[in-house]
Amino acid sequence: MSDEKYQAISKAVTEGEDIQTGELVKAALDASLPPLEILQKGVVDGITKAGELWKANQYFLPDVILSADAFKVGMEVLDPELKNTQTGPSRGKYIIGVVEGDMHDLGKSLVVALLTSAGFEVVDLGIDVPMDKFVEAVKTHQPTIVGLGAYMTTTMLIMKDIIKELSNQGLRNNVKVMVGGVPTSQEFSDEVGADAWGRDALDAMQKALTLVGG
Amino acid sequence: MSFTIEFEPIGIRLLCEEPLSISEAARRAGIGLRSECGGKAVCGKCLVHMEPGAAGISYVSSPETSHIKAKQFAEGWRLACRTILKSDAKVFIPPTSQIENQIVQTEGVASFFQAHSPIQCLSIDISPPSLEKQQADFERISTTLERQLNIKGIWAGLPALRSLRMVLRQGNWQGTIALNDREIIAAFTEKNIQPLGLAVDVGTTKLACYLVNLETGQTLATSGIMNPQIVFGEDVMSRLEKVMVSSENADRLQRNVIESINQIASTLCETQSVTVDRLLAFCIVGNTAMHHLLLNLPVRPLALAPFIPALSSSLEVKADSLGLHAAPGAVVYLPPPIAGFVGSDHLAFLLACQFGEDTRIRLGIDIGTNSEIALQMNDRIVSCSTASGPAFEGAHIRHGMRAAVGAIAHVCIDENLHPHCDVIGHGLPMGICGSGILDAIAEMRRTNIINSRGRIDPQAAGVMIEQNSIPAYILAAGNNGRHDIVVAQQDIDQILMAKGAIRAGIEILMDHFHITTQDIEDVTIAGAFGSYLDPFNAVRIGLLPEIPLDHIHTVGNAAGTGARMILASTECRIQAEALARKIDYLELTVVPGFNRYFAKGIRLPSPQT
């Protein structure tokens, strides 16, 4: 019976049904199903499937956007419960944010969903994040990876400064840096001294896994 | 190692495997580049522009320098036949080096307005000075004019004073004085001449100029060329970025666009057998970034959130302060920009299409590299801007090109999934322009070659599978060494994202006003691409919601029309400034749920039967 519930949640996430996802997750919690199983067999399974369909050219960007949205709603319902549970093995902590001057949330939210699905513990700093906040977060959370997103040619210039500042504060050697977003490229990533570049959300997830040796 | 050459402004890309000359590359891409001497560096007709300092280029220097001055060379001008490319490069082919001219939209909506300019030309006939009457030149004229017009306080700036003296003495104390309100801005030896002005629409991709008779409002000649700043980047943001990294670039971008306006102005004046010193007034509209780059205003705050423009009021400056060639005291009027991403071109468009003058619920869309959308309801207008990108104009489409000879402009797919294409100029197809790709997508959806997610059915007839198992639909099979012309999966994705951005803007504005599709009484679509856009296709691919087709009008370059109205009529100028105050700006990126609007906007509607 419980497997059917997990499948229904997974399906709702894959199909991008945000409201339904929220309701199903709540119903599963009310039925006293273990939050960790709801997470892994339901919400994460759904977003993983969406990612696979994207990779197979059966899904397109909007489908993944809608799935990521449903995923987010499911996570919001699930989060308070997960706080009280052992979340199981993690791939490591991943801090992510969109750089200052940039308000684009879309690409980053896809990356957050896929990274979570891959087993990372993601700390999302949001959009328009000042340099100091990135540096502060690296100090506080001591993540394995920090991901910087920029979606405009004008804002991506700041990434170099952030990476430099991490070096200046002696933090650079303890953390891997990834960059991503529409105007970025492998050359840009090399130029600013990042460890990896994510071409899109799927690629970002795979590169992150490579960085942690998974 | 392979590399790509991008030809601007035509928007064609060529994949190359080995080093080759630009002339050779153009030939392979099927672009008509002039070469009277056959590539011997003799004629100097194949002049092209490269971004200064670009890598992977080598030159055969000596014959080249004979046609190119050191200054031009430093600015990036090269002879195509003497320039060898080895890595990714962008080549700008100016109109003078092209065999076939491009279609650049300059017509707009038919405009009905009463010309009434503060600028007037007055014929004078005054008595020359003598030892008995030693009145100075300026006073001699000002007192005559003041008496003639029954006004006081006529004055002149220094540049006008300089020419006044020369002109009157050459013209034997007869001629014409041009007045801007009470200021003498020019003097001419001829009598009975018409006051001329230039309206300019500076678009990210295109520059359209209109020579206007300020007294009658009549447009005497029009011309359009590609914005030469395109070599610094296709979109607004990449140009702002270039200026942010180097102030030299700021000067260069400004000079580029001013020089182009001067060049077109001179051509337009020639059609009327006059010179540019007859130009008395300018009205220049453009998006806020183009406005700032033209004036060389600091752009950093415009380039980063929260995207604040340097000013949002109108501006009047002297033409010579911008380097524009015109009459000594000619004035340039720049209507107010609305916000960081909604410029005076949008205002001019709304003015030309009579927004704010009735209470109908109207939607106005100006499609460009950045598209602006306005929704009018009762006494309110809310505008937003969306980065739709240049995909509609054929950029980032593998076989995309702008609407020029050789472009597939219309596509129809029959029941056997066989495509039928209309080619501009009726020759062999070279690529697909914006209207062609929309036709193709709408037809592919109708025949279920693609589903509502825009995915190509790999099993469908006419579909080939390329690298990484990505499908592409063949529109025109290649022959005689020409490649196939296809609509690839990535092309469809580009178009869907562009239309999704516009559709998201429309839906957000409709929700902002709590209205539905049925409430919309009129849709006005402007922009160069807009005039090639078939309303039927716009609805078929879901660029527009399902609005009855007779409610949808395309008006071409309405911003240019608005600019002409503002140029020749004080009333229109006042009206435009009042309209600007009425327009509220909505920033889309901060609208809750924007991602969902965008995602839903990308989906293709079900085919209608």
Give me the secondary-structure topology.
The complex is a heterodimer of chains A (214) and B (609).
Chain A lengths: L1 H13 L3 H13 L4 H21 L5 H22 L9 E7 L7 H12 L2 E5 L6 H11 L3 E5 L8 H11 L7 E5 L5 H7 L3 E3 L2 H11 L3
Parallel strand pairs in A: 1-2, 1-3, 3-4, 4-5
Chain B lengths: L2 E6 L3 E5 L3 E2 H8 L17 E4 L6 E3 L1 H7 L2 H5 L2 E3 L3 E3 L3 E4 L26 E7 L11 H13 L5 E2 L1 H13 L3 E7 L2 E6 L7 E7 L3 E8 L5 E8 L9 H10 L1 H25 L7 E8 L1 H8 L4 H4 L11 E4 H4 L8 E4 L9 H9 L9 E5 L4 E7 L2 E7 L20 E7 L5 E5 L7 E2 L1 H13 L16 E3 L5 E6 L8 E4 H24 L9 E5 L8 H6 L11 E5 L1 H11 L1 H13 E3 L8 H9 L7
Helix pairs in contact in B: 6-7, 11-15, 11-16, 13-17, 15-16
With strands numbered from the N-terminus, the spatial order across the biggest sheet of chain B is 15-14-13-16-18-17
Total of DSSP H or I helical runs spanning 4+ residues of chain B: 17
Let me know the average pLDDT of chain A: 92
Percentage of helical residues of chain A?
Answer: 55-70%
Q: What global shape of chain A is seen?
A: globular
Q: Assign the CATH topology of the largest domain in chain A.
A: Rossmann fold
Mean pLDDT of chain B: 88
Largest sheet data of chain A:
5 strands, parallel
> Helical residue percent of chain B?
25-40%
How is the CATH topology of the domain at 344-390 and 495-602 in chain B named?
Nucleotidyltransferase, domain 5
Helix/strand order of chain A: HHHHEHEHEHEHEH
